[in-house]
Fold Carrier domain-containing protein.
Amino acid sequence: MTATNDQTVTTAVKRLLIAESRLTMDPAELRDDEPLKGDVLNVSSLGFVGMFVRLEDELDVELPDDLFNGRTFTTVDDMVAVVAEATGR
């Protein structure tokens, strides 16, 4: 696993969420508390799983299955937190 800082994780998550929602905006424009299903983002459950796989590849991390147990993902921050936890950040 490579060292990954918080900003790298946040930017990667936001970029993938924007792409999955078929938007054209800069990741910095996306609020951390933006709902994953709302007026701006619209992420399907299948898209959600695919994004975590792409994040593993892009950030060279493994997101173990038990990391997701009991978690609810409703905002951008929720996704960033789980990836940051896996990277030790």
In short: The helical segments are 6-20, 45-59, 76-87. The longest helix spans residues 6-20.
